[in-house]
Write a structure and sequence with these properties.
heterodimer; A: about 170 residues; mainly alpha; Rna Polymerase Sigma Factor, Chain: A; Arc Repressor Mutant, subunit A; 8 helices; about 0% strand; globular; B: alpha+beta; 2 domains; two-stranded antiparallel ribbon; elongated
């Protein structure tokens, strides 16, 4: 009984993390539908590998890592899939967010999208998802020094592109 | 004193130890340039965080919630309930033992029953339940899997085959799509003299929500795609490979 309950409990925790998984996926793949497909694949894989999750590890980092690995598989097999599956619809889906918010989101999204992939993922995990450096390094399978240098370079490039107003100095 | 930008960045991210923090805070008081650089890091952090909040507020698609809960519960009919009961009666081996397998089984049975439900008893030409509940291709689907090449899109076929590949087990597997009003896609592997169905899923375009969203839907489902990725050994077969495998009646070849 308790085993069953804990499995259900983990499933509900995964449900609660879905919004964040979707957000991270959109930094991997641009089209929202494709990003959601990646989330679905990752969640299905996670459920099949629950026995590999150490309960002392953060569930969010573990899921981000599965998602990132699923995406790498996807990129690798893109040529293979092109043989089997019909071409995907391209195009932006504009959500229901207010106009102002949409403009704001797109500009930061566009800036992030212009970063090299390594920097984009480092920025996404630390600045958007709020992961600690060591957790982000673990998701990306790199030493922490590599993570911080990617993050620093990504930040510098974003500062250049976004030209944010100086924060308040207090 | 000079503080590296990486250190200031780590400070803004709350990643420095107490001693470093004290040094940086002293430098901030003494040097407006240091304070300005930290403010810049904080402003970027805030902008990144705020800019992506729209995704967080969107409703999560039901298919993802279903996936996280391990089964499309609404599709599961009586047999699945019976199967779950059997799983509950089985000896407990802890979470790592039976739970993922049981969830996978209920997912497969769930979609399969959903499928059989649409087709009723006439479905046995396409999908049959073999001994111990394993799904096998019925005569019509088996014929398609054994004889058709993936490029074959002639009208009137009961099923089209997508990708053929050799699985890590050495068995040949093929993805397929069933045509007709209740289109499904799946993955079947040749074992012995039958095609065992590993995954069967309703095609995305037949579900109400995604129909509007992606009219030119791909013929697969993420479940099928994930199953291919999990089991494929190397690259899929090309046309010549399919012809050769067909000549050998898709008999398993030893792994190298």
């Amino acid at each position: 009984m308790s085993t069953n309950e804990s499995a259900e409990n983990i499933q509900e925790q995964i449900v609660a993390l879905l919004p964040r998984l979707r957000r991270f996926a959109r930094n991997l793949v641009r089209a929202p539908q494709d990003a959601d497909d990646m989330v679905q694949i990752a969640v299905e894989r996670a459920l099949l590998r629950l026995d590999q999750w150490r309960s002392d590890a953060r569930l969010d980092s573990w899921l981000f890592k599965i998602l990132r690995n699923a995406w790498i598989d996807e990129v690798r097999s893109r040529g293979r899939r092109a043989k089997i599956f019909m071409p995907e619809e391209a195009g932006e889906h504009i959500g229901e967010a207010s106009m102002e918010r949409e403009i704001d989101r797109l500009s930061v999204e566009a800036a992030l999208g212009r970063l090299p992939q390594d920097q984009r993922l480092a920025v996404s995990l630390v600045l958007v998802e709020g992961l600690a450096y060591k957790d982000a390094a673990d998701v990306l399978d790199v030493p922490i020094g590599t993570l911080t240098s990617r993050l620093a370079r990504g930040r510098e490039a974003l500062q250049e592109m976004l030209r944010l107003p100086e924060g308040d100095l207090s | 004193m000079t503080v590296s930008d990486e250190t200031l960045m780590a400070y803004a991210d709350g990643e420095v130890d107490a001693a470093t923090r004290a040094i940086i805070e002293a430098a901030m008081r003494d040097d407006p340039e240091v304070a300005r650089r930290i403010a810049r890091h904080r402003a970027l952090r805030k902008a990144m965080r705020g800019a992506f909040s729209a995704v967080i507020d969107e409703p999560v698609p039901q298919r993802l919630i279903d996936a996280a809960r391990g089964a499309p519960v609404s599709d599961v009919a009586d047999l699945a309930g019976a199967r779950d009961a059997a799983v509950r009666k089985a000896p407990r081996r802890g979470l790592s033992g039976w739970q993922p397998a049981a969830m996978a089984a209920s997912l497969l049975v769930g979609v399969a029953l959903g499928y059989l439900g649409w087709h009723g008893s006439s479905s046995n030409t396409l999908v049959n339940t073999g001994p111990s509940g394993v799904l096998v291709a019925g005569a019509g689907l088996a014929e398609a899997l054994s004889s058709q090449l993936s490029a074959d899109r002639s009208p009137g076929l009961v099923a089209t085959t997508g990708l053929s590949f050799r699985a890590k087990s050495g068995d040949y597997c093929r993805t397929f799509s069933l045509t007709g009003t209740n289109a499904s896609s799946g993955l079947a592997c040749r074992e012995g003299s039958s095609w065992k169905i590993r995954v069967l899923a309703q095609s995305p375009q037949t579900t109400a929500n995604s129909a509007a969203f992606r009219p030119a839907a791909s013929a697969d489902s993420p479940v099928v795609r994930a199953a291919v990725e999990e089991s494929i050994d190397g690259e899929p077969l090309d046309r010549a490979g399919e012809i050769a495998a067909r000549r050998e009646k898709w008999a398993a070849t030893p792994s190298h």
